Amino acid sequence: MEQEKKIFLGDRCEVNIDGYSASADPPIICEAWVHCGKPKGGQPSKIMRDALKLLFTQKRLKKEHKKILLFCDEVSRNHFTRKDSWQAECLKDYGIETEVYPLSEVQKQRLKEAKKLQQTSK
Predict the structure, then answer these.
(1) What is the C-alpha radius of gyration for the chain, rounded to an integer number of angstroms?
(2) How many helices (H) and strands (E) does the chain have?
(3) Which is higher by pLDDT, 18 or 11?
(4) How far is CA 119 from the centre of its chain?
(5) Calpha distance 71→68 (Å, rounded)
(6) What is the mean predicted confidence (pLDDT) over 38-48?
(7) Which string of b and e fits 15-47 if b means at least 16 CB within 10 Å?
């Protein structure tokens, strides 16, 4: 699977997709959320916007795709798979899968350091 790919969807319309594989059957489009832990504040809305981007991309490409929202731990994914979550039901109804690709301890540490840098640069 390719990492970030710019996909042209028509006149002056393009999207950046985090992961893309045209060689899979069906092809795969994927958005990744690199955050460890429970989503807070507006973060669930950001993830649902990513889900909408997957649906829009598939519609414009006029071909069925495997649509994946990728999380880095079960805690962050849980909100989108719980039985009492409207977001989980929405994703299921629209055929958007959720998967986890766990980060190594080194990657988690780098993520924490990057977030600290972002907070101090604001």
Answers:
(1) 15
(2) 4, 5
(3) 18
(4) 23
(5) 10
(6) 93
(7) bebbbbbeeeeeebbbbbbebbeebeeeeeeeb
- Specify the 3-state DSSP secondary structure of 43: helix
For the entire predicted model, the pTM comes to: 0.84
118, pLDDT greater than 90? no
pLDDT tens by residue, 79-113: 999 999 999 999 999 999 999 998 888 887 887 78
What are the start-end ranges of the E strands in 22-100?
A: 28-33, 66-71, 96-100
Q: Which two tokens stand for residue 51?
A: 């889900």
Show the tokens assigned to 47.
């993830």
Q: Quote the tokens at residue 87.
A: 């977001």
Question: Is residue 19 within 8 Å of 7, Cβ to Cβ?
Answer: no
The domain segmentation of the chain, as residue ranges, is: 2-120
Per-state percent for the chain, helix, strand, coil, to nearest 5: 40, 30, 30
Tell me the sheet residues that pair with 28: 21, 66
Q: How far is CA 58 from the centre of its chain?
A: 14
Calculate helix-pair angle for 86-93, 43-61, nearest 10 degrees. 10
